[in-house]
Amino acid sequence: MTISFKRFLAISLSTLLLQQTVAEPVQASKVIAKENRSYFDAKELYSPYASWGISPNNSASINLLEAWKKFQKKKEIVVAVVDTGIDPTHPFLQQNLYTKSGKPTEANFGVDFSKDRRMIGAPLDNHGHGTHVSGIIKSIFPDVKILALKYYNPVASGIDNLNSTVEALKYAVDQNVDIINYSGGGPEAALEELRILKEAERKGILVVAAAGNEESNIDDRKKAYFPASYGLKNIITVTAHDESLQILSSSNYGKNSVDIFAPGYRIRSSLQNGRAGFLTGTSQATAFVTGVAALIKSQYPQISTDKIKEIIKNSAKKEVTMEGKCASGGRLDAAEALAMAESMVNGNDVNRQLANNSDKNSSEKVKEGKIIYRLTNNQ
Asked: Is 328 designated active site?
């Protein structure tokens, strides 16, 4: 029997084994050299909530320190994270919460659209996925403002979770957020979801979406993954690589349907209850691209959404292992993206817009495969 309206969190099977892992403390021997001065404190690259994906000492990282050297904040950026909610008291995230009105409080730190919610203004994360994704975005752009929009209820039906997703997306678009991060999806298109995302396109709101973890080529229409596969000009679709620059065995790909690779294996970030830990999947890769897009949009708010997408793709670092797997044929490079944005602005090629781990432990030798959290009762 076909299961309709499934919605997934774009994390892999091995994620469950790693979810309770607590991050190691920062080693005191790590010293930031004077030449590494940047807009943000370079020590943050070594925080207990940071991963190899932003480490200056890792050749597979996104080259973030060099991007920070180029960066100058010009505009506050609000990112709507449509996910499982957030831990509002997490020490890494509590200063980044954004609300429509008033200061964040215990009863007002986002919006809960999930089925059978208790408090609409308190999207508490009981899963960890949303808090983890938000932490990655913050690790790349420490000043980002995060609008936490919860759609996920583990005991809700697939159609209920999809309806909650649509409500959350509509709210984000109505609020004219700068970027929507959606680290999830499913195999079915939804007309109302598409309509709202087209409105986001019209407004100039960037949407960064996970390619999914179905081990599939989503260029094949029968294996499409939504919202990543809608093909709108404002959607950046992201797949995941590891520290060896290999695509994760679980990750979807597609020369035409997927735009770029980003770090996605055993990524350390914030987890609920003030913890840190590791998760794996295209969910995590998506958050890296959102963070870099936020940097660009903050420094160069005059660059249009379609141009930001073009910059991120064209600045990708080409890799043989990624050729034919995505449109850019490469992986996220934050410094090159900022440099390309600067060149574009200097050339006046801009438009105004409306919207403001290679080593594996024995416990990890489980195949990275299908997403385990299916947002439906019909499993």
From this structure: no
